[in-house]
Write a structure and sequence with these properties.
The protein is α/β, with parallel strands linked by helices and 459 residues long. Helices cover 37% and strands 21% of the residues. It has 14 helices and 17 strands. It is globular and about 65 Å long. InterPro entries: Amidohydro-rel (IPR006680), Metal-dep_hydrolase_composite (IPR011059), Metal_Hydrolase (IPR032466), MTA/SAH_deaminase (IPR050287). This is 8-oxoguanine deaminase.
Length: 459
């Protein structure tokens, strides 16, 4: 049976209920789970055992990314998109995204997942919602295939857009589908990929894109389909004031009230952003167990606003962390997202609003709770062997080894980790991906991106 033994780790940051830290401790991985933790774990050497000398290493639970758009890694840093807020930004990018192909989906998944793994992320959700009419409707299959190949734990969100510009929505006609097409493919994906068992590596989420891009009927039918099949629901909500105005004008109510009308509250629902919610709405979120994926870098870059995360946590709203799409964040760097969240809330909500450990809690325990996958998010006996390791003898960490959590968030000249382990498999070793060819991913992604953006950039 395959085993990994981390010997004499400098410090293991467990993020368990008591947030214990174990110094000079061993950690044994067996069959994808944490088998034993403590001192002086001894095993006979054999071909199935890999021993890692952890003397200089800090060991952290794997980070959990709750919201992304992998395909956007192919449209990063486009000059004209840099000075736009959300609605204008979307209208500019929709025509480029209409050029998505199966290869684009596959390689953008490898690219985004690779960046995530190399920055300590072991579990990710992705919200894929662009299905060009000139392509087959099975594009999400290529995400599941690539995620399995690279070795990341994956919650694939079958997104959708059905309300085009001619019907009063935001997206153009060539990237929307009918409700019937969307629901049929959603059923197919649940049957093919959803694993409801504990320690699942792949699950399916139903995720109509947003109140301004889908019909009310699709929201209702997606809810029914998801709950019939025991899968979660996800969408963008309360991201900008423009969205709030759109929903008020079209439906005569605020975004959360509209979601409540459609049955979109509950422990099986989480929203990306949730920036523009008031205190009474947060109380409703807490009472129903409805979750939030907090996306600080995207919210800052698009000037969308600052979510009330400290208040959410005080009220008991389940909150996790997310990088959001790489065209609004321009990276898939989870450790940098930790730092951004920490600094954002210190600036806006005060010096005692969130500690470094609180922010790490968002990206571990918070993600676990939102995704309803209790076996991830902390390092404890019997839980999933999802973790990352950083060598303490780094230039950027010198002079600041007193608190590894603070060092992780505040220090460093790079966020690339030394090891990432997912489901008991080493997927990053010495800072490099082990299951895929990074040079090939870079070359393919650049070529595909150039083709997708050719018409826009040649204007």
């Amino acid at each position: 049976m395959k085993q990994i033994l981390i010997k004499n780790a400098k410090e293991i940051i467990t993020m368990n209920e008591n947030r214990e830290r174990l110094k000079n401790a061993d950690l044994l991985i067996e069959a994808g789970k944490i088998k034993e933790m403590g001192r002086n774990i001894s095993l006979e050497e054999n071909e199935e055992l890999k021993i890692i000398n952890g003397r200089d290493y800090f060991v952290f639970p794997g980070l959990i990314n709750l919201h992304h758009h992998f395909y956007q890694t192919l449209t990063r840093s486009l000059p004209e998109a840099q000075e736009m807020e959300l609605f204008g930004w979307l209208k500019y990018l929709y025509p480029i995204w209409s050029n998505l192909t199966a290869d684009a989906v596959y390689y953008s998944t490898l690219l985004a997942a690779g960046e995530l793994l190399k920055t300590g992320c072991t579990t990710t959700s992705d919200h894929f919602y662009v299905f060009p009419r000139n392509q087959a409707d099975n594009l999400l299959d290529y995400e599941f295939e690539a995620a399995a190949e690279i070795g990341i734990r994956f919650h694939g969100s079958r997104g959708s857009m059905s309300l085009s510009q001619k019907d009063g929505g935001l997206p153009p006609d060539d990237v929307v589908q009918t409700d019937e097409e969307i629901l049929a493919d959603s059923k197919r994906l649940i049957v093919k990929y959803h694993d409801s068992n504990p320690f699942a590596m792949q699950r399916v989420v139903l995720a109509p894109c947003s109140p301004f891009s889908v019909t009310e009927e699709l929201m209702l039918k997606s809810t029914e389909l998801a709950r019939q099949n025991g899968v979660q629901l996800h969408t963008h909500l309360a991201e900008t004031k423009d969205e709030e105005k759109f929903v008020l004008d079209k439906y005569g109510m605020r975004p959360l009230a509209y979601m409540e009308k459609l049955g979109w509250l509950g422990e099986d629902v989480w929203y990306a952003h949730a920036v523009h919610l008031n205190s009474s709405e947060l109380e409703k979120m807490a009472a129903t167990g409805t979750g939030v994926s907090h996306c600080p870098v995207s919210n800052m870059k698009l000037s969308s606003g600052v979510a009330l995360v400290p208040e959410m946590l005080n009220k008991g709203v389940p909150v996790g962390l997310a990088v959001d799409g790489s065209a609004s964040n321009d990276s898939s760097n989870m450790i940098l997202e930790l730092k951004s969240a920490f600094l954002m809330h210190r600036l806006i909500h005060g010096i005692k609003s969130l500690s470094a450990e609180d922010v790490l809690g968002l990206a571990t325990n918070g993600g676990r709770d939102v995704l309803n996958q209790p076996e991830i998010g902390s390092l404890e006996l019997g839980k999933a062997a999802d973790m990352f390791m950083i060598n303490s003898k780094r230039l950027g960490w010198a002079g600041g080894l007193y608190d590894p959590v603070s060092a992780l968030i505040n220090q460093g000249d790079t966020q690339i980790v030394d090891y990432t382990i997912v489901n008991g498999e080493i997927v990053v070793e010495k800072g490099e991906l082990t299951n895929v060819d990074e040079k090939e991913i870079v070359e393919k992604a650049n070529n595909i991106s150039a083709k997708m953006c050719k018409d826009i950039l040649s204007r």
